[in-house]
Amino acid sequence: MTTLTETTVAGIDDQRIASENSTTKFMVALDVDGTLVDHDGHMSVPVREAAQAVVAAGHDVLIATGRSLNATLPIIEQIGIDRGYAVCCNGGVTLRLDPDLTDGYEIIHKATFDPAPALRALRQKLPTAKYALEDEDGNFLSTERFQDASFGVEAIGVDFQTLLEATAVRLVVFSTENTPEEFTATIQEIGLAGVTYSVGWTAWLDIAAAGVTKASALERLRGQLGAEPHRTVAIGDGRNDIEMLGWAGRGVAMGQAPEEVIAAADEVTHSVFDDGAAHVLRSLLA
């Protein structure tokens, strides 16, 4: 079962202002890993400066990432977004950013699900894989002390039964013994139901609640911001960006993206190692 928890995103005045500005603003959705930062987590100076310039120009720039909240906040700070929105956990969590708030942000939407059916099915086929999940309180629970920078917090080691009993926002599965292609074949064989999933560059699986993607979260925000579909831009490189690139009026794949990601995009930029995101961002300032 999917549970959606929301608070109001924008008031009448906010919507009026957004409508007035919709003809001059772009709504820009930016993936993080492999797009804004390389696979070592480094953001180049050209990318940072281009992103900051687009923010300063008044466009609605949103981070849209598979990362969890605490791993997303440093990226938001680096590119200078202090007001607006961000999408984390592949659409599972949406933030409203406002410097007047105590923490500078609030969670306005959260989609949770029961991970037990997926966990049981996956463990039968992938008994040696590592499993972790973000629970509804923002904690990360993991088997075998599984840790990743995208979690943003130190994972708490638990047994598999504890994972089965938790309520999840994000479920992660990692296997060192499988290729991404083998991982995809296994998932298709299992026939996961009631969840949305994507396979990463390695044998890495991210699972969210059914129907929840970066695109679903961004579409909700697009309506609130009053952005016209043709003035939406998205840049990404991963399989979890496919829906987002199809959603955007201008979907741009990074140069190093897999073939199926490139196929979903309207255009392709340079790779993350050649500052591909900066080229796209600077084009919005012309």
From TrEMBL:
InterPro entries (UniProt xref): Cof, HAD-like_sf, HAD-SF_hydro_IIB, HAD_sf
One Pfam family recorded for the sequence: Hydrolase_3
Matches recorded under PROSITE patterns: COF_2
Keywords on record: Hydrolase
GO molecular function terms listed in the Swiss-Prot or TrEMBL record: hydrolase activity
PANTHER family: HAD SUPERFAMILY HYDROLASE-LIKE, TYPE 3 (PTHR10000:SF8), PHOSPHOSERINE PHOSPHATASE (PTHR10000)
NCBIfam families to which the protein is assigned, alphabetical: Cof-subfamily (TIGR00099), HAD-SF-IIB (TIGR01484)
Stated name of the protein: Cof-type HAD-IIB family hydrolase
Organism: Pseudarthrobacter humi
